[in-house]
Amino acid sequence: MKIGLGLYRRMLNEDHYRFAQQLGVSHVVVHLEDYFSADPKLVAEGRDNWGTSCAEDWTAETFHRLKADLATHDLELAAIENFAVAHWYDILLDGPDRDAQIEHLKSIVRAAGQAGVPCIGYNFSVTGVWGWVRGPFARGGAMSVGFDIDRIDRDAPIPEGMVWNMAYRDRLGPKSQRPVSSDEIWLRYARFLDELLPVAEEAGVVLAAHPDDPPVDSLRMTAKLINSHDAYRRAFELSASPANKAELCLGCLQEMADGDIYDTVAEFARQDRIGYIHFRNVRGKVPNYHEVFIDEGDIDMARMIAVLKDNGYDGVLIPDHTPELHCNAPWHAGKAFAIGYMKALLAR
What's the pLDDT tens digit per position in 116-140? Predict the structure, then answer.
């Protein structure tokens, strides 16, 4: 197995490439969507959404340049994580520009294949990551995020112009997006896979599905998709394509109400259904959980490494979001702690 680091759009620079190299990771997962500042926080406080979608530069030339920049620091590109919301909001909403946006996603996947990008992660969700609260939930009062369904208005409507917690136009509202049922979201997803997976397979690119976060039945009057272990299995049953895999977030999988995480991970690893892994830990399950340090949650991470090894997984692990250490560089310190712990587990 290989250890990687996730970097956001505004962190694609010399300083952060050097930081990754000094940590001793071999791979980088890149977010080209612009949902955080250069100093990312787990929750953008005081804002109604995570920002305005950035649809620029998703070309083979960009991917080639990104790979070349990483290579100068002995780093490899493991995946692009998330399409820009501006690229596919009407695919998620089944809106009037859906067909044009599918064709554009196909061009992005082909460009990724031309540049040798092995994987694109995505989260097929209208609400996106929504409902978190920020607080001192990790060891020593470290700032992290949690979910408590009793502390939010779970039926708060989504304003027009927003999807996946991102604005795709300058002005939101005044109307709201219409509700979406479970049957509707699954039909939209099946159509998405039917049209995009053949292109991905031909291009040599894996499409890796992230589970819902939070993995509840619905939020904001919109049904969730991959919100259980069996829902992941259903997603794989929609297509036997080798390009149809999981962006397997261990935290989300553990947060789900049912299922044994060790059995499920072993199953997916044996079936070669894992694109890459978000290696993070949580305490609790829906409807109430907290994200915590990698060594203090409900998942036995040493056991998880053994499960992955025993079932033939040799791909990339990244720490994903981590609690913030109390220092002048909370994001960097949190990542450094998680990666050090991961390296020690792999060396056992």
Answer: 999 999 999 999 989 988 999 999 9
Q: What pLDDT digit, counting tens, does each position of 17-67 carry?
A: 999 999 999 999 999 987 764 444 554 443 456 666 766 779 999 999 999
Q: Which two tokens stand for residue 211?
A: 């589970």
DSSP state of 222: E
Segment among 106-110, 169-173, 238-242, 340-344 with least mean pLDDT: 169-173
Tokens 């994200």 — which residue? 291
Model-wide pTM > 0.85: yes
| Cα distances (Å, whole numbers) of residue 122 to 49, 81, 264 | 19, 6, 20
Structure tokens at 70: 């990483």
Tokens of 295: 């060594």
Give the DSSP letter string of 157-182.
PPBTTEETTEESSSS--SSBPPPB-H
- DSSP calls for 1-38: -EEEEEE-GGG-SHHHHHHHHHHT--EEEE--S--S-S
Q: What gap in Å lies between CA 278 and CA 190, rounded to an integer? A: 24
- Residue of 314, 211, 298, 226 lying closest to 262 (CA atoms): 298
Give the pairing of strands 76-81 and 119-122.
parallel
Contact status, residue 14 vs residue 66, Cβ threshold 8 Å: no
Q: 114-138 burial string, b = 16+ CB within 10 Å, else e?
A: bbebbbbbbbbbbbbbbbbeeeebb
Task: Say if strands 316-318 and 274-278 run parallel, antiparallel, or are unpaired.
Answer: parallel
Instruction: Read off the pLDDT of residues 188-199 as tens digits, 9 standing for 90 and up.
Output: 999 999 999 999
- DSSP conformation class of 210: P
Residues 241 and 201: beta-carbon distance below 8 Å: yes
Q: How far apart are the first and last CA of the chain?
A: 13
Ramachandran assignment for 63, one of left (phi > 0), alpha (psi -120 to 50 degrees), beta (any other): alpha
Question: What sections of the chain are H helices per DSSP?
Answer: 14-23, 60-71, 85-93, 98-115, 182-203, 229-237, 250-255, 261-270, 301-310, 330-347
pLDDT value at position 196? Answer: 98
The H-or-E segment that residue 136 falls in is strand 133-138
